[in-house]
Specification:
437 residues, alpha/beta, TIM Barrel, three-stranded antiparallel beta sheet, 16 helices, 15 strands, 38% helix
Length: 437
């Protein structure tokens, strides 16, 4: 018997207790000091207890379990719903301080009926056997003007013919005026961003014409919820606006949003991607961001009514009372996510869409595919990334984002490592010991 190569062992933040987690055997335990020392020393009073949970293993047996879990993961992923992004434009009416599409060439707004029809014809053929939905992305997909209105109307109509749900990712400036049209479709959710309250938001996400945006976005969110349209509110965090998190949490509660079953939230980390903010001192790495969120939640527990951070798998454990399935692949690109733009190009995901050189093919005016590159994307998981082979965190990390990894190393089959242990130290402490729930 030997210690499992998948064990994750560390101490809870601000605590004398430790945790032991094994993503392959799907076991998790909080250990007191005595039991933690037993594990650390390798001198087990009753090895059978540790064997039963998969913390002590016969390597050959663990290898069989690993293979079986991988095959199960692939089978389930092949049945998963596909998120298909469509970008009707790269143009935007905002001048956000951290836009990763800043270097993309804008285009004049036109209604491209032929492109939209070609897009639906393509997905009808290529994703015929898959569950799927469409997310309309940008740029800004809900601009003012006749061309955008006709585009949105046709997308809603064509999706409706196929019984497909639509989601929209918007800055929310014109959201309120689009609600009557959106109500005619099968809308899964509207994702909209607020980076703080009032001026704090407006400084980070100003309108190009100098208009304030916060109040208009708030009205749009309220109009959606009143119309029965789900809203996914996103807050993008860096060191400039981290203190806005409790303020925005209180504001959302005061608006009555957090009490609505149609309202959910996500926190985004502002980070370097393609054209933005190289070397910026305002950016967080993952650990420092979640350390500050941890500290803020301890001081302002009402934040958890607004958003409950994942802290790797800590949130899942707290909410479900069990471990998630092993994560062999954290990157959905070309597996459960594709992106298409109005120029007729095909991309792997939202992180690559529009970036020159990242095209994987075309759906208009002719169909082409870069089969070898697509195959490389499809092969990317922890079994195909050499650096992941001996990492004990791989089944909780999943190899991270392929686009970020490629930007760093030049290789798709390279890792974007996630600080799983440090996030678990924070999250398990917050949810299971501090019990700030």
């Amino acid at each position: 018997m030997q210690i499992s190569s998948h064990n994750i062992f560390s101490r809870l933040r601000d605590s004398d207790q430790h945790f032991l987690i094994n993503p392959l055997s799907r076991q998790a335990d909080i250990l007191d000091a005595e039991t933690a020392e037993e594990y650390r020393s390798g001198q087990f009073a009753d090895p059978s207890v540790w064997v039963e949970k998969g913390y002590l293993v016969e390597p050959a047996e663990e290898a069989k379990r690993y293979k079986a879990a991988y095959l199960n993961f692939i089978e389930n992923r092949d049945r998963d719903e596909v998120q298909i992004f469509f970008l009707p434009t790269y143009a935007c009416n905002f001048a956000c301080s951290y836009c990763y599409q800043e270097g993309y060439e804008p285009h004049r707004e036109v209604f491209r009926e032929d492109v939209i029809d070609a897009f639906f014809t393509y997905i009808d053929a290529e994703f015929a056997e898959r569950r799927k939905y469409i997310t309309v992305f940008g740029g800004e997909p809900l601009l003012s003007g006749e061309a955008t209105g006709l585009t949105v109307e046709r997308l809603i109509r064509e999706a409706g013919k196929r019984g497909l749900e639509l989601a929209f990712v918007t800055n929310g400036f014109h959201l309120e005026e689009y609600v009557p049209l959106l109500k005619t479709g099968k809308i899964r959710e509207i994702q909209v961003t607020l980076d703080g309250v009032g001026d704090a938001h407006d400084r980070r996400r100003p309108h190009k014409a100098g208009e304030a945006s916060f109040d208009r976005i708030v009205r749009g969110i309220g109009a959606c919820l009143s119309a029965g349209i789900p809203v996914n509110l996103r807050m993008v965090l860096d060191k400039e606006n981290i203190e806005e998190l409790p303020r925005l949490a209180r504001f959302a509660r005061e608006q009555g949003w957090t009490a609505s079953p149609l309202f959910k939230t996500q926190l985004g980390r502002n980070y370097e991607l393609h054209y933005c903010q190289k070397g910026s001192g305002k950016l967080y790495d993952r650990v420092s961001l979640y350390q500050d969120i941890y500290d803020l939640v301890l001081k302002n527990p009402e934040i958890l009514e607004f958003h409950r951070p994942a802290f790797s798998i800590s949130k899942f454990l707290w909410e479900n009372g069990e471990m998630p399935q092993p994560l062999f692949d954290a990157c959905p690109g070309t597996k459960t996510e594709w992106a298409f733009d109005f120029t007729g190009k095909i991309y792997s995901c939202t992180a690559t869409v529009g970036k020159p050189g990242e095209e994987l093919g075309t759906f208009y005016p002719v169909r082409t595919l870069k089969s070898e590159i697509i195959a490389e994307w499809g092969e990317r998981d922890v079994t195909g990334i050499p650096e992941c082979a001996l990492c004990n965190l791989r089944l909780a990390c999943g190899g991270g984002c392929a686009s970020v990894a490629k930007n760093k190393s030049g290789r798709i089959l390279s890792p974007d490592c996630r600080p799983v242990t440090e996030l678990l130290e924070l999250g398990l402490s917050l949810y299971f010991e501090k019990e700030v729930v």
